[in-house]
């Protein structure tokens, strides 16, 4: 009798287990369908993914040595690759407002900061055309001389939050719709570069952040690239691999720079 009950119990356990699996499968199918439907709704309201024609500077770029790229490290934004499609790209750069300020030393430091950031801009201008505008509202890339906000990191090993002492530079982006009819989906980049850096650090930080601002939204794992993930003491010039990556990004489809459906 005991044996029979055991067998029955085992059978009913199997039965409930199977029933559980079936319910779980049904739930997963419904959940996936609703997520897919939401995604399709969102995709219908955004411009479809399309490629822009490559700017002449990148058409002309050739790497005869095949030094490779780090395209696989580039992350996609919700609107696709962060590609500029109107050239020259308009940038606004913080400049001292009052050149007759009594504190000449601080103005001098500001002017040095401006000169150094302009040097990095000139380097990138060989690959993508850029022009300075005086009104930040009209700029695609706004470059500010300000302390970037401190990010808070979570250390999974200690389970504690870490606040780094300082951050030298940071780039962020925002999407917006133009006033056109139909509106065009565009993005704007903001680069913050700390005023308290040495000239060399300002150069390497602005070179690196401008790479992000122009669309290289990821990091290289090679120290010889300007977009190497650690900015500390990285004085690498813009490398062939940086530009190979940039060119590959600009060949990708994006929702940016296209009209809403
Ligand atoms: Zn970076």
Fold and architecture overview:
It contains 5 helices and 7 strands; from the N terminus they run ααβαββββββαα. The chain has 261 residues and is an alpha/beta fold. It has 2 domains: 45 residues; 194 residues, Collagenase (Catalytic Domain), CATH 3.40.390. The strands form 2 sheets. It has a 5-stranded mixed beta sheet, with helices on one face. α3 packs across α4. The mean pLDDT is 89. Zinc ion binds next to α4.
Topology record:
Elements: H1 2-45, H2 56-59, E1 89-93, H3 104-125, E2 130-132, E3 141-145, E4 153-155, E5 160-162, E6 169-177, E7 185-193, H4 199-213, H5 240-250
Parallel strand pairs: 1-2, 1-3, 3-7
Antiparallel strand pairs: 4-5, 6-7
The structure holds zinc ion.
**Strand order in the sheet with the most strands:** 2-1-3-7-6
Helix-and-strand structural type: alpha/beta
At the first level of CATH, the class of the largest domain is Alpha Beta
Portion of residues in beta strands equals 5-15%
Order of helices and strands: HHEHEEEEEEHH
Assign the CATH superfamily of the largest domain: Collagenase (Catalytic Domain)
Radius of gyration: 26 Å
The helix count comes to 5
Percentage of residues in helical conformation = 25-40%
Which fold does the CATH topology of the largest domain refer to?
Collagenase (Catalytic Domain)
| Spatial gap, N to C terminus | 72 Å
The largest sheet, given as strand count, sense and whether it forms a barrel, is:
5 strands, mixed
Small-molecule binders here are:
zinc ion
Q: Note poorly predicted spans.
A: none
**In total, how many domains does the architecture comprise?**
2
Mean pLDDT score, rounded?
89
The CATH level-2 architecture of the largest domain is identified as 3-Layer(aba) Sandwich
